[in-house]
Design brief:
This protein has about 280 residues and is mostly helical. It has eleven helices and two strands; from the N terminus they run H-H-H-H-E-H-H-E-H-H-H-H-H. Helix 2 (about 10-40) runs antiparallel to helix 5 (about 90-120). The relative contact order is 0.10.
Length: about 280
């Protein structure tokens, strides 16, 4: 759809175009969810319950680091001190469906982002369209990086801390299946979405809703918000919160530079009129 055509489209026609983008995105998610549903053993035994195993990559890495630095096995695990329990008749089946949908969304996210770009691209200038392709590419990369960061770092820390925390030796931890799945999925999705901050700032800056000066002015407020957000998605210990806050703060600083460069480019385009064909 050309830019001239999009300028003359009515509101209802825009809604119709958006509807088809949403339909294609939903179909992509459902297709990936079906593939995840069929791969039940990989989805659960390898991925979902992977961080519960003592030989998980993160635990072995921390164990190796503790041995090299302090010559101790402080972070080495022999077993995870809790068991997962299902207490509902249809609990495992509903969990299978729910986790498959989440996996479908994660796998289809790059395509969903592409559909979003296809919807907004007709309203962009040729130069903006070229730059936005890079935003699309890095948006997918950042989401996968965020998901990996949450899965390989935050989830193991959460499980190790919350799963081993006890108030008395008289109590054994029997974790409900829904509680375990909720912890893994919420942390993983949250970090994936948070890592999209530079992409969100790009579109907000392009639309004029935020500026680089605005982001710099409220940097201290952003730091507080980042710390609060980190506290929500991590176990209640300072080390985990700092570990999560650090990459988010880096992404915030990157977002400031993105907004500043976008403003300079827009100002340059206003001062230098386009050449006539």
């Amino acid at each position: 759809m050309a830019k001239a055509e999009s300028d003359h489209m009515s509101f209802l026609e825009h809604l119709e175009v958006l509807r088809w983008h949403l339909i294609r995105s939903t179909l992509a998610i459902m297709l990936m969810a079906m593939l995840a549903f069929l791969g039940k053993s990989i989805l659960f035994d390898v991925i979902i319950f992977g961080p519960k195993q003592p030989d998980f990559f993160t635990y072995e890495l921390f164990c190796t680091i503790s041995r090299e630095i302090s010559n101790t096995e402080l972070f080495c695990l022999s077993e995870m001190p809790f068991k997962i329990l299902n207490t509902r008749m249809a609990g495992q089946f509903s969990t299978h469906i729910w986790v498959s949908l989440i996996a479908g969304f994660i796998l289809a996210f790059p395509y969903v982002l592409y559909e979003f770009w296809r919807f907004v691209a007709p309203g962009l200038k040729s130069t903006e369209r070229r730059y936005s392709r890079w935003v699309l590419f890095f948006g997918g990369i950042l989401f996968l990086m965020g998901v990996s960061f949450g899965y390989y770092l935050i989830v193991p820390l959460s499980l190790q801390f919350l799963g081993s925390y006890t108030i008395s030796d008289e109590i054994n931890n029997l974790i409900d299946l829904n509680s375990y799945i909720s912890t893994v999925s919420t942390v993983t999705l949250a970090t994936g979405i948070i890592f999209e901050l530079p992409v969100v700032i790009y579109f907000l800056a392009r639309s004029g809703l935020v500026t680089a000066d605005f982001l710099r002015k409220y940097r201290r407020h952003a730091i507080v918000l980042i710390l609060v957000l980190s506290a929500v998605i991590t176990p209640p210990d300072v080390a985990s919160q700092i570990l999560v806050s650090f990459p988010i703060f880096i992404l915030y600083e990157i977002s400031i530079r993105i907004a500043a460069r976008l403003e300079k480019r827009q100002l340059k385009e206003l001062k230098v009129p386009a050449k006539k064909d």
